[in-house]
Amino acid sequence: MRIEGTSAVVTGGGSGLGEATARLLAKLGAVVHVFDRNQAAAEKVATEIGGVALSGDVTSEDDAAKALDIAAKAGDGLRILVNCAGIGTAGRIVGKNGPMPLADFERVIRVNLIGTFNMMRLAADRMSGLPERDDKARGVIVNTASVAAFEGQIGQAAYAASKGGIVSLALPAAREFSRFGIRVNTVAPGIFLTPLLHELPQEAQDSLASAIPYPSRLGDPGEFADAVRFVIENQYVNGEVIRLDGALRMQPR
After folding, report:
1. What is the pTM of this model?
2. What is the tens place of the pLDDT at every residue in 192-222?
3. Could you list the residue ranges that cross the membrane (predicted)?
4. Which sequence spans correspond to the domains of the chain?
5. Residue 159: active-site member
6. According to DSSP H, which parts of the chain are helical?
7. Lower CB density within 10 Å: C or N end of the chain?
């Protein structure tokens, strides 16, 4: 699908992978709606790229619907959704203080998996009523998983489960939405230099990078954005999960 002239929503667009994606889509001519719980971050990015800042929670039906309705009025309609919003938590299923609090597990599943599903279902509903573009296309949805979906480490049970669910969503959603001309794909990044990792000492960053076969460095958010661009523009990519990890395979710990 051609990106220029479309309206796009990027969740988690105020920082990290979402910010890099928002910046690239804007550069390519999309009207980008930066949807983030952090209003200040959303406004900063949106101002710099000439986009629209939207503050809200991806797990809220009302917040999501309001954001998508605003985006639907821009460009030639809402054509692109990129789900980057997510949280991580570390904790063993059974740790020194007993079993993981169920609320901790639920929170990660709710934000990462249910939040992604919430945005996807509401966006697809709006996309399905749009006029067809070239090649009978109406829209593209790109979700963000993680290599943890495949090789979750000890202490990553909640995170890995949430990202595994996102991986499993790609094919059934792509099959269901095919009748509307809406594609669904997932990018599963490895270890990227996001704001969280920026806070680590350089020695810790170097240690993480050394585990990556090639290139032996942390991923650049711009490389994630490039992958999203490829998925959007290549009409034959559908129902796929693309690992973006420098051949990394996570060890148990």
Report:
1. 0.95
2. 988 767 766 788 778 888 899 999 999 999 9
3. none
4. 7-242
5. yes
6. 16-27, 39-49, 61-72, 102-108, 115-127, 157-177, 195-198, 202-210, 221-233
7. C
